[in-house]
Amino acid sequence: MPAPLFILSSLSSTMAQQTPAFPSPAPGQAVVNLPQYPDFHPTVHVPCISDSQREMLRLLHDRPIVFLFYMIEKRAESALRPFQNQDPWIGPTIAAKLLKNKDALAMLLHSIPRAHMRAIVMGTIGWQTWSGHQPPVMLHSNPYKNNGPGTYIATICIDQRRGKGLSGNEYNTLAQMLEDYLQAYQASKLANQHRPQSAQDLLKWARGIDLIYASKRAKSGQTASIHASTVALDPNIHLAQGMSYVGCASRDITSRSSAHKQDSHFESSNYTWWLTMSCLVEMGLSPVVRVNHAIRTWEPDQLPISEILVTILSHSMVEERGFNAWPPGSMPDPGTLHDWDTDLFSVMHYRNFLQTQLAESGEAFAKRSKKLKGLEELKISTSDSQAAILLNLCQTSSASLKFADEDDVRTTLLRRGELVNKAKIADEELEVSMQFFAQITI
Fold first, then answer.
1. Among 81, 267, 285, 345, which is most buried by a count of CB atoms within 10 Å?
2. Measured at the alpha carbon of residue 114, what is the angle toward residues 110 and 120, in degrees to the nearest 5?
3. Burial zone of 2 (CB within 10 Å; 0-12 exposed, 13-18 middle, 19+ buried)
4. pLDDT at 226
5. What is the C-alpha separation between 331 and 301, in angstroms, rounded?
6. Where in the sequence is the domain holding 407, given as residue range(s)?
């Protein structure tokens, strides 16, 4: 039996480890509960929300896109610090590429419509682009009007489920099937005379799995492993949060991404993907792949950064909840022979949200600069006021020793108390100013 080039995503393997934690409405329930601002707590339909997802969703709720750029930049810088704990979201290799191409990162981030970016981060982009939804839930699978180079997200949904995926019970079954497949691979390494009948039966079953979809992609490779987590899923609810793979195309997103669809010829796709699709068919389900154009590039050298960006926004690495097994950012651009003028025209003519989001960020940056300048002036003024009050306080304290009259002493002490209160207020104002400064420079 061929060894699978496969590492199971944390989302799918998650389901072998959970216990039900939610009430169970009828399967296929029409109303979908999405995580809501400000806490973005997980729901039965969107059960996997990490701290980094929550932070991005809060910024996307009401902040200009530039604040999300600052967040990603800060996490990338942190990943490169010596002795820093490994960040599973942005590793050192990816961080170095992002920081080397910060201008491209900022432009590409602003080129994604805010609603699409929110769906990518939440993991609901496959469900939200199902054609039966109504605005504001419904999103177009290609918001860029035309085709060309760029990055896409392919999501596995189940037919007749309005863009949704598996239930908790089905994830359990899928995870068990994949465990059996891995055991079959281990059995395939034994000599025939040392295989018990149970191993022979398992091998026969696994070869049948390969023949469903993946026979053209099966080949010798490394042994698979499973990343398990403890996310609790409702056994009967079909999730709106799907299993996704991020890919990129140097010339044609539509053509390149078709390699992941259920009716493709499977010549150039992810083996993990096809193994999972084959198991779903074995379970009696009909997988349907929804492809969404995440970013359309329009200049040389943008493609690798666009793939990295969408991968970290969607958490699509196998260590998180997707099918991407290798670090993103290795696909080269089409080069100088490509007609970049057409792509640039597409950006400027059709993507009015790019200009709008850049203008919002520019305005926010101008306000931020103004606040920083005003804060610095306030800091200087407060410090000067505090120094003057303290000086006056010391002088009053010394002078009070010379008074003999009781009323004069009482008046002097009262004045000294007022000065102490003013000094305390000045300290508090300075502390508030410094806290504000720290907050807006994050």
1. 285
2. 100
3. middle
4. 45
5. 10
6. 371-440
For 154, list phi and psi in degrees, rounded to 5.
Answer: -105, 130
Q: Residue 207 and residue 203: Cα distance in Å, rounded?
A: 6
426 and 346 in one domain? Answer: no
283 lies in the same domain as 417: no
CA 439 to centroid of chain Cα atoms: 23
Written as six digits, the tokens of 229 are 């987590």
The pLDDT of residue 83 is: 72
Give strand ranges (E) for 131-242. Answer: 150-158
End-to-end CA distance of the chain: 53
d(Cα 69, Cα 440) in Å, to the nearest integer?
Answer: 14
Chunked into runs of 10 residues, the chain (442 residues) has average pLDDT values of 34 34 46 93 94 95 94 92 73 92 95 96 95 85 88 96 94 92 88 86 90 60 44 90 93 90 73 88 96 93 95 91 88 75 79 85 82 67 64 57 55 66 66 54 46
CA–CA dist 385, 424 (Å, integer): 11
pLDDT digits (tens, 9 = 90+) for 158-203: 999 999 999 999 999 999 998 999 899 888 888 887 888 998 999 9
CATH of the domain at 381: 1.20.58
Instruction: Give the list of residues 6+ apart from residue 305 with CB closer than 8 angstroms, or none.
Output: 97, 98, 101, 104, 105, 108, 329
Q: Is residue 362 part of a domain?
A: no
Cα–Cα distance list, 318 to 74, 104, 314, 440 (Å): 23, 26, 11, 34
Q: How far apart are CA 387 and CA 385, in angstroms?
A: 5
Which residue is it, tokens 């200087």? 380
